[in-house]
Write a structure and sequence with these properties.
Number of strands of chain A: 9
Distance between the termini of chain A: 44 Å
Strand content of chain A: 25-35%
Shape of chain A: globular
Order of helices and strands of chain B: EEEHEHEHEHEEHEHHHHHHEEHEEHEHHH
Largest sheet of chain A: 4 strands, antiparallel
Number of strands of chain B: 14
Helix content of chain B: 40-55%
Helix content of chain A: under 10%
Low-confidence stretches of chain A: 100-106
Structural class of chain B: alpha/beta
Largest interface: A-B, 34 and 30 residues
Radius of gyration of chain A: 14 Å
Strand order of the largest sheet of chain B: 10-11-9-8-12-13-14
Mean pLDDT of chain A: 88
Low-confidence stretches of chain B: none
Distance between the termini of chain B: 52 Å
Order of helices and strands of chain A: EEEEEEEEEH
Number of helices of chain B: 16
Oligomer: heterodimer
Structural class of chain A: mainly beta
């Protein structure tokens, strides 16, 4: 058993973590195997996602090491990552991904 | 080298159980099949409603599934009970006999009375049961194991605790030279490009994209738009934001390994490593297909405690949350909920799953076996005639 943590990062490539218990603004989010702690800036219900770093608009959201969506606005570190600031992928996004082109640089 | 003790069959495959089964090949004799199994303690009945009044694609699917079940490495002997002049049991039995399987078929509706047929069946099954007891076990390598990956009664934690833990196990057994079979095509819709990009070659990639498209179109023909309906409002409340995220939570049971092959429902993989089988999301039909395709053991993640088992393969239940484990510990074999309340990592749970798989392969009874959960249902493609 590892040291106590309250959020799970599913892959080292991820920029979001799933919180294992409901966190309130000001709470510190801690992840398994990580020394870094993130201050939560909004209430995040358990099972939902928190941003581990600032994610600018149009950048990808990574969970499981895979792209699960695109930021629709600038997301701050510690923010709640959900429908209000993320959209799913379009066929266009997927074809870019398939060709290995980094859409963040387009 | 990781090993287990199993039962070597005439065709070279190795089973982790040594069952004697009786299977109906017509829905009409399902009741008699259960009755006959009841007359010979130790024999497992495998009953379903298929076999008659089916269009060609369903007849083919039924034959494939029943042949895969009766000829499964976990089965020592199988008796078919059929009905009528066009029954499929004799055709299936003849093919299995050629592969060295111990099978027999009895057809109701001929010149013999029902009681005479049942008596004939009882004598055959008693002899088969005696013979099965003489079968010796031998040591085998995990490279000979095929593990089916399934989820049912999923909750918001499935994709966070149990499924990534299964994925971690899957990568380990694939690394060791074994085989893991991911299924449930419907769950891949939305994240198909991710699995497709992990395909070993263009042929496998296109085959995978093809079966996902076919599934989506079948659903559309029935008036269901999978992409528009997911994630559901309940999923969103649980924290899922996009369809890709929901699908990823399911397909991550397959870890990060290279996709080696795509097989049709109830068909055996010819490649080792990480494989995908085209099955529906309904857990009973999916598990039936995985087992008929040769999976000796099934890993099954559940958040709500789906009791689904298999008549012939041990199903290992992996609970997704601590509450489920508290409420029904007798139905759960591995508690991945420890990730939530005891700070275990999914890699640790993945290792726990691997140990459990080896223990179960060696004969340890799973929760679903203990409670005789023996669900069986064949994926139907078209209408009944």
């Amino acid at each position: 058993m590892d040291e106590q943590f309250n959020a799970l990062m599913l892959d080292e490539k991820d920029n979001v973590a799933v919180v294992l218990q409901t966190l309130r603004a000001g709470d510190l989010l801690s992840i398994q195997d990580e020394v870094k702690k993130v201050e939560v800036i909004k209430s995040i219900p358990y099972g939902h996602k928190a941003a581990l770093s600032p994610i600018p608009k149009d950048h990808r959201i990574y969970k499981y090491g895979e792209c699960m969506g695109i930021a629709t606005q600038d997301i701050e570190e510690g923010d709640h990552v959900h429908e209000s600031n993320v959209r799913g992928l379009t066929e266009e996004d997927k074809s870019y991904q398939e060709e290995g082109i980094n859409i963040e640089n387009i | 080298m990781k090993t287990f003790k199993g039962y070597r069959r005439a065709n070279g495959s190795i089973g982790v159980r040594n069952h004697v089964v009786v299977i109906n090949t017509a829905g009409e004799v399902a009741g008699l099949t259960k009755k006959l199994a009841g007359q010979v303690p130790g024999v497992i009945p495998i009953v379903h409603q298929a076999g008659q009044f089916q269009y060609a694609e369903d007849k083919k699917q039924t034959i494939q599934t029943l042949a895969g079940t009766a000829g499964h490495p976990n089965v020592s002997a199988a008796l078919f009970l059929g009905m009528g002049s066009e029954d499929i049991s004799e055709e299936i039995a003849a093919n299995l006999k050629e592969n060295g399987c111990h099978v027999y078929s009895i057809i109701f509706g001929g010149n013999k009375s029902i009681s005479a047929c049942l008596e004939e069946g009882e004598i055959w099954l008693k002899d088969a049961l005696e013979r099965s007891k003489q079968q010796e076990m031998e040591e085998a390598n995990v490279t000979e194991l095929k593990i089916g990956l399934e989820c049912g009664g999923s909750d918001a934690w499935s994709g966070i605790t149990a499924n990534p833990s299964i994925g971690s196990f899957s990568d380990s057994i694939v690394f060791d030279g074994g085989t893991s079979i991911l299924a449930e095509t419907t769950e891949a819709v939305g994240a198909e490009h991710i699995l497709a990009n992990r395909a070993v070659n263009l042929e496998v990639k296109n085959r995978f994209l093809e079966i996902v498209k076919r599934f989506e179109q079948r659903a559309k023909a029935a008036g269901e738009d999978i992409k528009a309906a997911n994630p559901s409002p309940g999923n969103k409340t649980g924290g899922l934001t996009t369809l890709e995220e929901k699908s990823l939570g399911c397909i991550k049971k397959g870890g990060n390994s290279t996709l080696m092959e795509v097989v049709d429902y109830a068909h055996s993989p010819t490649e080792k490593g990480f494989v995908f089988m085209d099955t529906p999301g309904y857990d009973v039909e999916s598990v039936t297909g995985l087992v008929a395709g040769g999976a000796q053991i099934i890993l099954f993640s559940t958040g709500k405690g789906s009791p689904t088992g298999s008549p012939i393969a041990p199903v290992i239940k992996i609970g997704t949350n601590p509450k489920l484990y508290k409420n029904m510990p007798e139905h759960i074999d591995v508690n991945a909920g420890k990730i939530i309340d005891q700070s275990y990592s999914f890699k640790q749970i993945g290792e726990e799953i691997y140990s459990k798989v080896l223990q179960v392969a060696d004969g340890e009874i799973t929760a679903s076996e203990k409670y005789n959960n023996q669900e069986f249902s064949i994926w139907r493609l078209a209408e009944t005639q």
